[in-house]
Amino acid sequence: MKIINKTGLRTDQLQHLIKEVAKKELVDLKDSIFTIIHRRGGRNGIAGYAYYGLPARVTLKVPKEFPIDKAELAYVTAHELCHTQGLRHKQMKNAIYSRRYANKHNIDWRQHYLWANDLPLEVTSVKVAVPVPKSYVVQQKRGTSASGRWTSGRRR
Ligand SMILES: [Zn+2]
């Protein structure tokens, strides 16, 4: 199992939550890849998508705001794992995997995932910018810019 984590959330804790969902859903995570990204445009709620079939290729989209709704993250993970089992939405007509179904029938989908609230999901320490080595700092030639200011080169 591989996690590509583009959020500030702790990768080990994300992995643990996903593994717990997979254990309950009896999904084999061998060779699976989960990508965790932020939702764009300040959207709330958790979203995701997955390819049909194994090994699992799942993308989970979480809000930038902290804390993350862990029960919802577990729900969306379970939903996407259904897709990795080849299930389409019309085959997920129950309150465990479909919020639409749950809302329509006035059932609390969240009750199935409250266990996830007991798992830790913290933000890693704020990333400190790494100073750019001098060899990568190039001075713009005189005349190429009005200010002639220093500019940092592209880091490898
Ligand atoms: Zn879906």
Short description:
The protein has one domain. The protein is built from 3 helices and 6 strands; from the N terminus they run E-H-E-E-E-H-H-E-E.
Record the SSE blueprint.
Elements (H helix, E strand, L loop, with lengths): L1 E4 L5 H15 L7 E6 L8 E4 L6 E6 L7 H15 L14 H6 L32 E3 L10 E3 L4
Parallel strand pairs: 1-2, 2-4
Antiparallel strand pairs: 3-4, 5-6
Helix pairs in contact: 1-2
The structure holds zinc ion.
Zinc ion binds next to α2.
Name the descriptors.
binds zinc ion; 156 residues; 17% strand; 6 strands; 4-stranded mixed beta sheet; two-stranded antiparallel ribbon
Explained architecture:
It is built from 3 helices and 6 strands, in the order βαβββααββ. The protein is of the alpha/beta class and 156 residues long. The protein has one domain. Helix 1 packs across helix 2 (70-84). The longest helix has 15 residues, at 11-25. Residues 79, 83, 89 line the site of zinc ion.
Structural class comes to alpha/beta
N-to-C SSE string, H for helix and E for strand: EHEEEHHEE
Estimated helix fraction: 10-25%
How confident is the prediction overall: mean pLDDT?
87
The radius of gyration is 21 Å
Report, as a whole number of angstroms, the end-to-end distance.
27 Å
**Total count of domains:** 1
Into which percentage range does the β-strand content fall?
15-25%
| Poorly predicted runs of 5 or more residues | 143-149
State the total count of DSSP E strands. 6
Which geometry do the CA atoms define? globular
